[in-house]
Structure formats: structure tokens, C-alpha cells
Amino acid sequence: MTRKNLKKTSAIIALITMAAVMAVGCGKKHNSSTNYYSENYDYAKTAGEVAYDAGGYGDYEYDYGDYEMDYAMEEAEYAAPQAALAPGSNGVVDSGSTGIIDQGSAQKRKLIRTVELEVETKEYDALKQSIEDQINSLGGYIENEFSYNGSSYRNDGYQEKRHSTMTIRIPDNKLDEFVTVMSGMSNVVSKSTSATDVTLQYTDIESKRDMYLAEQESLLALLEKAESIEDITYLTQRLTDVRYNIESMERQLRLYDNQVDYATVYLNVSEVEILTPQVVQPKTPGEIIKEGFEASKADVLNSFRDFGMNFVINLPYIIRFLVISAIVVGINYAIVRIIIACVKKSVLKKRAKKAAKEQAAKEAAENADAKKEAAGETAEAKKETPEA
How many other C-beta atoms can be found within 10 angstroms of the C-beta atom of residue 169? Predict the structure, then answer.
């Protein structure tokens, strides 16, 4: 085989494979992800490069009329499955429509099932152990778990109860059994289920992978016949791209298989003192009064209990506060007493000085009066004595 014929043959194989992949993926044209379009874009570009390398611009011509015809055929193939899935249809699609599975074939469906459960119990430790035993017996495993042991207190003294949040993977055929067992072991507060059908996505990826596998075999056959270094290099590069696409699709298929084979259960477990009633029945006025009185009495008793517990728990802090308060009060009392004593002493000194001054003034006044009296007596004595 000559080099030119080899390139043309490789280009034809690549173009045929591209057309087959586009036809297989028509059911995903409007619902595919960005990665899907990027893969097809890269693949189409590679096919163009193949044609370019094989014949150049002169030999490779892009026929827009053929492209529009292919696009119209793809739209027609896409419309047929959608019409079969429309309300009122029997769900049966012609076997020629690739990637569409009969709606009645439940065994071929690829369903990803998810369950969310919120349960509560009075026996937290026993329930946790029972859940782990049940998971192991069913062949499942715990993917993620967060547990709170309830050791911290809030500012108001309330202690939060223990609780756990788990992400559990259970074999899909054992999911209903696990949910039933959980309903019997605990009080189910809420439950929600969902199922995502990925049948079309799965079959599309499988078909694309098979097309790439077929191209890989053709490239390997051409590689065995290649003679020049350029041909070998080109075929090797193309073979690398094809193998990368195959591995990428197989990874996606394995991910889907894991999600389909193992259902996901999001489980929340809470420890409570009183279980939430499952069914609320109408109550008579007497029952309402009785239950309200019992609830009020329980709240009062619990408040006294919590007060006593908090008092004992905080007793060291209370003692420390009382000791510090006593020291502060004692120091303040001593300071006040010292100030009072100093003030009294100052007042007494002032009073003593004032009394001494008053006493001295009084004595001076008395002395002055005594002198006056003595002077008067002398004058009277002189008057009474006759002149000689």
C-alpha cells in the first residue's frame, strides 16, 4: 500500500467513524453536557485534519449540502424517539433508532436512586451500632459520617443532644430492605426518595465507545502495514487520541455503574427525650388541658433540675466570685474607716484649738474685769480717806 493510499484509507475510516458517532449521539443533541460537545468538536476537528493530511485543500472539499442533509437525518432520528416518549404513546421505538430502549424493559433501565432519611431515637448508642451492623450485613458501606457527642453547653446552659449525619451506599437491590429495617429500628421523622434515569446517557456513551474501539482496530491494522516514518507517526498519534477517548468513556461508564449498582442514603440520626408522634389525632379539651398541665409540670421540674445542675456545675465560679467580692468589700470598708478616722481626728483638733482660743479669750476678759474692779476699789478708797 502506497503512502497516498494509506492516508486516504485512514481519512475515510476517520470520516466514517465520525459520521457513525454523530448518528449514535443524535438522541443527546439537545441534552448533552459541555464535555460531550467538546469531545465531538475535537473529534470532528481531528477528522478534518485527517482529510487535510490525506489530500490537501485541493483533494478535500467540505460539502455543505451533504452536511445539511446529515443534520436533517439526525433531527428526524431525534424526533422519532421523542414522539415515542410523548404522552399517549406506547413507549415502543423502532429498533433502528440507536440509543433508545423500550420503556417496558425495566431490566435494562439504569436508575440512580437516592433516599434521604431523618430519624430519632432515645437509645442513640444502640441505634448507631444496629445501623452499622445492618449496613455490613447488606454489603454496603459508609461513605461519609459526621457525629456530635453533645458535650458542649450553650450560654443559657442548654446541652445539645447527640446526632450524626451519614452518607451510606447500599446495593440497589437491598435499598428497600434497608429503609424498612430503619423504620423498625427508629422513629422516622421524614423520608424522601428520588430516581434519576441515565439509560440514554449510558447507551450513548457505550455506542460511542464501541465506535472508537472499531476505529482502534482499523488503525492498528493500518499501523501494521505502514512503512514510512511519517505514516507510523501519524497513525500512532491518532491511535493515542482514540485510546484516550475510549478510556474517558469507560471511566464514565464505571461511574454510572457504581451509582446505579449502589444507591445513596443520606441518614440523619438525632437523640431525643420524647419521640415525635407519627400520627396526630384530634384531642378533646380535657386531653389538651391534661397534656398542657403535664407539659408545664415537666418544664417546671426540668427548670429546677437544670438550676440545681447548673448551680453545682458553676459552684467553683460562685465561690471565686464570693471570695473576690468579700476581699473587695473588706478593702473598701477599711479604706472608709481610715478616712472617717482621719476626718474625726482633724475635726477634734479644730475643735480643741477653737476651745483653747475661747478659753483664752474668756480668761483675758475675766482678767480685764478683775483689773477694772481692783481699780474701782482703789478709787473709792482714796475718796473715803480724809485729806491730811
Answer: 19
Cell numbers at residue 143, please? 461513605
Residues 330-381: tens digit of each pLDDT: 999 999 999 999 998 888 888 888 888 888 888 888 888 777 777 777 777 7
CB atoms near residue 113 (< 10 Å): 18
The answer to whether residues 182 and 279 touch, using CB atoms and an 8 Å cutoff, is no
What angle, 0 to 180 degrees and rounded to 10, lies between the N-to-C axes of helices 124-137 and 175-185?
160
CA 65, chain centre distance (Å): 53
First to last CA, the chain: 194
The arrangement of strands across the sheet holding 262-271 comes to 141-148, 163-171, 262-271, 111-121, 187-197
Give the count of beta carbons closer than 10 Å to the beta carbon of residue 211.
Answer: 25
Compute the Cα dihedral for 346, 348, 351, 352 and give only its sign. Answer: negative
- Closest to 202 in 3D by CA, of 163, 158, 248, 257: 257
The model's pTM is 0.51
Which has the closest alpha carbon to 185: 128, 227, 136?
Answer: 128
Classify residue 13 by burial, with Cβ atoms within 10 Å: 0-12, 13-18, 19+: buried
Q: Are 179 and 115 in contact (CB under 8 A)?
A: yes
Phi, psi of 209 (to 5 degrees): -60, -40
| Strands annotated E in the chain | 111-121, 141-148, 163-171, 187-197, 262-271
Residues 6+ apart with CB under 8 A from 296: none
- The neighbouring-strand residues paired with 113 are 195
